[in-house]
Amino acid sequence: MGIGDGALGFWNALSKEFPESRHQRCWIHKTANLLDKLPKSVQPEAKGMIHEIYMSSTRDVALKAFDDFVRLFKVKYPKVTDCLLKDKEQMLTFYDFPAEHWRHIRSTNVIESTFATVRLRTYRTKGCLSKTTALTMVFKLIQAAEKKWQRIQGYQLLPKILSGEEFIDGELKAA
Q: What is the reported pLDDT for 109?
C-alpha cells in the first residue's frame, strides 16, 4: 500500500512500478483541503464530522458518517463534498488492513515530520554544502529523528498481509 497526499506523480509512479499496490490518501492532508473550502464558522463542525469518518471502528460506520457529511454540506458547499467524494475509495483503504496499523497508515505526517527537519536544515545552509556534506548532514538528521519514531504496532501481522491474507474492518478474515 502507498500512502500519500494528492500528488499525482506519486500515484502514477506507484501504479507503474507496483501495479498491485493499494492506495490510501492521507486524512490529514484531505482534512486540511476540505476545511480550506469552508467558511471559518463551519470548520469546527466539519472537522468533527471528518474525524468521525476516519476514526470509525468499521467501514460501514465510516460510510454512514461519510454520507452524513455529504448530506449536510452538499447543497451549501458543493466544492467540499466534491473534493471528498472524488477520493472516497482511497480514503477508506485502511479498513482492509489490521486495526493495529490504522494509526500508522491513515496519514503521511510521520514521514513528513522527519523530512521537515531535514528540509529546514538544508534550506538554512543552502549553498554552504558540498554533495558529500549535504548527504552526511541529512543522514545524521534522520538518524537523530529515528530515536523519536514510534514502533509499528502489530508488526507481527506484516507476514499475513504479505502472504495475501484478507482483513475486514481491521480483523483477520476467517478462512
A: 66
How many whole angstroms separate alpha carbon 98 and alpha carbon 167?
6
Do residues 106 and 26 lie in contact, with contact meaning Cβ atoms separated by under 8 Å? yes
Give the residue ranges of DSSP H helices in 4-95.
Answer: 8-17, 27-36, 43-54, 59-73, 78-85, 88-91
CB proximity list for 51: less than 8 A, separation 6 or greater = 31
Alpha-carbon span 141 to 20, nearest angstrom: 33
pTM for the whole structure: 0.78
**172 Cβ contact list (under 8 Å, min separation 6):** 98, 157, 160, 165, 166
C-alpha cell, 102: 490504522
Q: What is the pLDDT of residues 47-65, one digit of tens each?
A: 999 999 999 999 999 999 9
Would you say residue 132 has pLDDT above 90? no
Three-state secondary-structure class, residue 2:
strand
Q: What type of residue sits at position 141? A: L
**Is residue 69 very low, low, confident or very high in pLDDT (cuts 50, 70, 90)?**
very high
Name the one residue in this structure whose C-alpha cell is 464530522: 49
